[in-house]
Design a protein that fits this description.
This protein is 78% helix and 0% strand. By secondary structure, the chain is mainly α. Helix 2 packs parallel to helix 5 and helix 5 runs parallel beside helix 8.
């Protein structure tokens, strides 16, 4: 294993994506400010802007750092360096997760400010956590698909599936009694339903990452 080369590839991807990530951060924070001070009239727009900023950060990073590296024929050059396919795989997983989790964690943490005032009932917090983890799962699905296939078509397909699937999942979860009965309350209720859903999301996210890593490690050649 060559940690130095892995670190260099991660830094390369971070450098390429830095200006774009800053713009997605700005969009996400603008959405949070709108949600706090814009009132109900801007509530829907703020929510759409927030989700768009997170989604765009994930999709753009995956396409730029994984898919385009193959389509623009940069991958053969990278693999000519003293690096193995396993080290390349680790660099892509570490780099992409570092970029997206940096945006996802900071914006997710900042978004809870809207619950300090009267913007939303605090009973929404468990469902809001499920929503945020659903975005992370959708990103994980896109990342692992892109990593294994390295194809634009497969990545776009995974993006569509993740988008539609997330909406259907959240709609079905919102209809569960353990979620629906407490979502409008003044205080968050962490019952077995919400905790079970959160635990399942985390397990699936980890399973997808481990599965994709094993698949890539089993390949003799990624060119």
């Amino acid at each position: 294993m060559n940690p130095s080369m892995i670190r260099k590839l991660v830094v390369k991807d971070l450098t390429i994506m830095k200006p774009w990530i800053l713009s997605y951060w700005a969009g996400g924070f603008c959405a949070i400010v709108l949600a706090i001070f814009g009132g109900e009239s801007f509530g829907t727009f703020a929510f759409i802007l927030f989700i768009t900023a997170l989604g765009a950060a994930g999709v753009h990073t995956i396409i730029q750092t994984i898919v385009l590296e193959r389509t623009e024929m940069n991958l053969p050059f990278i693999m000519s360096l003293p690096i193995t396919s396993r080290e390349y795989t680790l660099s892509k997983i570490i780099g992409n997760l570092a970029i997206f989790l940096g945006v996802w964690l900071t914006l997710s943490a900042a978004s809870f400010i809207i619950f300090i005032g009267d913007a939303l009932p605090r009973g929404v917090i468990p469902f809001f956590c499920i929503l945020l983890l659903s975005i992370l799962f959708a990103y994980t699905l896109m990342l692992t698909t892109s990593l294994v296939t390295e194809g634009m078509g497969w990545t776009i397909g995974a993006t569509v599936v993740a988008n539609i699937g997330t909406q259907m999942f959240l709609w079905s979860i919102s209809e569960l009694h353990g979620i629906r009965s407490v979502i409008g309350g003044n205080e968050p209720v962490w019952n077995s339903t919400s905790l079970g859903v959160i635990g399942a999301e985390l397990l699936v996210i980890v399973a997808c990452l481990i599965g994709a890593t094993f698949v890539q490690f089993g390949r003799k050649d990624i060119l």
